[in-house]
Amino acid sequence: MTRSVLTVCDLSSSEIGQVLDRAREAKQDRRRRGTELEGLTALLIFQKPSLRTRVSFELAVSNLGGRPLYLSPPEVGLGERETPEDVGGVAGRYCDLIICRTFDQSNLERLAASSGVPVVNALSDWEHPCQALADVLTIREHGGTTGRTLTYVGDGNNVARSLAIAAAGEGMDVRISSPSGYELDSASVTEASNRAAASGGSVSLVSDPDVAVSRADVVYTDTWTSMGQELEAKQRLEDFTGYQVDVDLVGKASPDASVMHCLPAHRGEEISDDVLDGPRSVVLDQAENRLHAQQALLAWLFA
Ligand code: CP
Predict the structure, then answer these.
(1) Rg of the chain's alpha carbons, rounded to an integer?
(2) Of the residues 122, 219, 221, 299, which has the fewest C-beta atoms closer than 10 A?
(3) Is 261 one of the catalytic residues?
(4) 24-70 residue pLDDT tens
């Protein structure tokens, strides 16, 4: 059966657990190579720039015996040069897997429907599921997930959505702190709450960041202005005043709290330099774990 991962909801909480168990094992023996993609080709269609996602997916495919082929933003023309259906139909004749970074979530759905091969979301305007897998793996490594508190401070965006749903399914108490007008949508809060109800966790929206961060075990933030929102940057800087993850805010969290950011960071906006570079920061572990989590996901999909 062709199985795509277009959102984190395409994986049950139990399946996320299986993938992350596999990632932890593979990480312990970094030289070990898999054969799950032996003889297979993965097409990476990227409509936006990337460091972490591109490199980690190319390595993951190679490490599993497959061949990655990268198409850069100007080469793709997804929805401009050709419809997603035409791209998907052609790609499905050449390749065994599509890994796509795009603006519009519907492009992923159209590629999945037309290609006949698994499609993996490498970031869309709606979700960043592979980032969430790496994030939960990182939290597991830094004190664990179940019964601990994760506070996300900032925009209720794609990263927040995937993270909240995945972490709630691991039994975490998830608090999301956003200014008015930037909260996570109610359907995603409901999905995360349903997963939390099954795992013993909880989900709450707490607008005051000082209250939200109080005694938290993990403090997470992401850029206030994502790719494609550049015209809103000035307004967003005003609207997010008071939501910077700085030394004062982190001082309200648990004394051994981890600080997370998916990167790239807008230093001095959503996070201060001294916190991003400070002793609580686990952002490089997060970045490294993109490789281990995605390699485990691909191995699991093709096992
Ligand atoms: N976190 C993340 O997706 O990074 P890139 O944009 O560099 O891929």
Answers:
(1) 19
(2) 299
(3) no
(4) 999 998 777 899 999 999 999 999 999 999 999 999 999 999 999 99
Structural contact between residues 129 and 5, judged by C-beta atoms closer than 8 angstroms: yes
Q: Whose CA is nearest to atom 5 of ligand 1?
A: 50
Structure tokens at 185: 């949508």
Helix (H) / strand (E) element for 101: namely strand 97-101
Overall pTM surpassing 0.90 (yes/no)? yes
Q: Say how far apart CA 291 and CA 61 lie, in whole Å.
A: 10
Q: Among this protein's residues, is 266 annotated catalytic?
A: no
Q: For the segment 164-209, what is each residue's pLDDT rounded down to a tens digit? A: 999 999 999 999 999 999 999 999 999 999 999 999 999 999 999 9
Q: Are 225 and 196 in contact (CB under 8 A)?
A: no
CA distances to 20, 21, 165, 186 from 195, in Å: 17, 19, 7, 14
